Amino acid sequence: MEVTVEQIKKLREVTGAGILDCRKALEEAGGDFDKAVEILRKKGAAKAAKKAGREAREGVIDVYTHGEGRIGVMVELNCETDFVARTPEFRELAHEIALQIAAMAPRYVSEEDVPEEVLAKEREIARERARSQGKPEHVLDRIAEGMINKFLDETVLLRQTYIRDDSKTIRDLITEAIAKLGENIVVRRFVRWELGEEFEA
């Protein structure tokens, strides 16, 4: 099947991949657009995995306020070079992540940041809830693990569904940027304030 310029252009707009990569993906997918998107995502994930170990100490701090100053977010996004840190694409990514934090109020950057005692407490709450609903003992652990996964999806930034596109997570968004910009990209840390909230020591 002949791949058209319009198909390549559309795929490029959606994925941010290069022209040649888009053409190859469409050819490999036999013209199936969704399949081509999936092929490019997998290639992007493979490229990102290769770059994951590289040190990322450059970058930007994005500051965002929302609701006439009712919510404030500060996020540090790192990359490998100041050249990439100055690109509009990188700065836009940092801003999108700040918007995500403002909207979805994650508590942790990654799964590794969640304290074990928090997971243990959530697991116990889930088991007790299931037990009170009359679930048999032998399924409590499985139910608890399902609830833990849901808890992580809601509270871990990298696992959250991207607010502008529910077909991808924030981890997917960063992976795509790594593939496009050619450097490791890391959310180093963030803080989110909401007017009037209780301060946790």
Count of helical regions: 8
Distance between the termini: 62 Å
Mean pLDDT: 87
CATH fold annotation of the largest domain: Tetrahydropterin Synthase, Chain A
Label the structural class. alpha+beta
Largest sheet: 3 strands, antiparallel
Q: Supply Rg.
A: 20 Å
Write the layout of secondary structure elements.
Layout: H1 5-15, H2 19-28, H3 33-51, E1 58-66, E2 71-79, H4 82-85, H5 88-104, H6 116-132, H7 140-155, E3 161-162, E4 165-169, H8 170-181, E5 186-194
Antiparallel strand pairs: 1-2, 2-5, 3-4
Helix pairs in contact: 1-2, 1-3, 2-3, 3-8, 5-8, 6-7
Quick tags:
53% helix; GTP Cyclohydrolase I, Chain A, domain 1; Tetrahydropterin Synthase, Chain A; alpha+beta; Helicase, Ruva Protein, domain 3; two-stranded antiparallel sheet
What does this structure look like?
With 201 residues, the chain is α+β, with helices and mostly antiparallel strands. It folds into 3 domains: 47 residues, Helicase, Ruva Protein, domain 3, CATH 1.10.8; 92 residues, Elongation factor Ts, dimerisation domain (Tetrahydropterin Synthase, Chain A), CATH 3.30.479.20; 40 residues, GTP Cyclohydrolase I, Chain A, domain 1, CATH 1.10.286. Strand 3 and strand 4 form a beta hairpin. The chain starts with a helix and ends in a 7-residue tail after the last strand. The model has no long low-confidence stretch (mean pLDDT 87).
